[in-house]
Design goal:
- The chain contains eleven helices and six strands.
- Helix content is 34%, strand content 11%.
- The longest helix is centred in the first third of the chain and has 13 residues, at 3-15.
- It is an alpha+beta fold and 290 residues long.
Length: 290
């Protein structure tokens, strides 16, 4: 049994609700100078692209995924995760989930020109209406875009956590059942109900006295808010998920995201056990799914 699995089982056991499940994915970065274990390369999805929110959801369901520059389905996530340069002026080659949606919506067929990483970074994609780029819209002629103007979009993008310049060659999303290498994740991503979020925050604070300060945005929730921000800051972050998470990965309506650096996840497990009698989770309304 992997270290991550052992910690998860301790967490759930200390919450004392029979049958409780909290979807969890481990995330491990591989920098350009590192060797990606050969055992992981078979989990790159080949010709099929996946967004980071899809990869996180699949991993929480038991299907591990190795995302690289070649197969990541969301250009914005490729930027956030440090797989491509944010100012690259050429499109990523091949089929990509997010831009394939643009292509289908535009009806332009082979005349469609996929956006470049720079088109995301300079606000053109997210302010498609103001930019007069109907080919970058997702919801037809009436699409407002994600931000009113390119200036506003650029302001929002500056606040999105990203690993730039790009120093990563791969990001591995793995499940509790994956124990081939007993990997230690960099970040743990949870999909929690609000009642579970409350109890986890209580467990985190019990031994430390620290609060959780969340930084939330409407886009790049999984890759930027729940993976990269905890990775760079060493702090927990929480998100209500984003457009891609809700529409492409189809995350559950009653779930929020929680990104936790692995060292703090270990602290939370200990805090959950230590505070068990002071925060009787089974008595919380909805804790048993009612």
């Amino acid at each position: 049994m992997s270290l991550l699995s052992r910690l998860y089982l301790r967490l759930i056991s200390a919450m004392e609700v029979e049958g409780l499940e909290i979807p969890l994915a481990g995330v491990r970065f591989y920098r350009q100078e590192e060797a990606v274990p050969e055992a992981l390369r078979e989990y790159a999805p080949g010709q099929i692209s996946l967004t980071s929110c899809q990869a996180a959801r699949q991993a929480a369901s038991g299907d591990v995924v190795l995302l690289t520059r070649e197969n990541i389905g969301c250009i914005a996530a490729a930027v956030s995760l440090g797989l491509v340069d944010e100012n690259q002026e050429t499109p990523l080659e091949g089929s990509r989930v997010y831009t394939d949606l643009m292509k289908a919506q535009s009806g332009m067929g082979e005349q469609f020109h996929a956006p470049t990483p720079k088109d995301f970074t300079d606000g053109t994609v997210y302010a498609c209406r103001e930019s007069h780029r109907a080919d970058f819209c997702l919801f037809g002629a009436e699409d407002s875009g994600r931000y009113r103007s390119r200036e506003i979009a650029r302001q929002a993008i500056r606040d999105m956590a990203a690993i730039q310049p790009p120093v990563m060659q791969a990001v591995f999303f793995f499940s509790l059942e994956f124990d081939e290498l007993d990997l230690r994740p960099d970040v743990v991503v949870l999909r929690v109900r609000p009642v579970e979020l409350a109890r986890i925050v209580q467990a985190y604070s019990y031994n430390s006295g620290r609060r959780v300060t969340a930084s939330m945005g409407p886009l790049r929730a999984v890759n930027s808010d729940l993976i990269v921000r905890p990775y760079l800051t060493g702090e927990i972050n929480v998100s209500p998920f984003c457009l891609g998470s809700r529409l492409i990965a189809e995350y559950e309506a009653d779930r929020m995201g929680m990104g936790i650096p692995f060292a703090l996840f270990e602290e939370i497990v200990a805090g959950m056990e230590d505070s068990r009698t002071g925060f009787p989770f089974p008595l919380y309304r909805g804790a048993r799914g009612l």
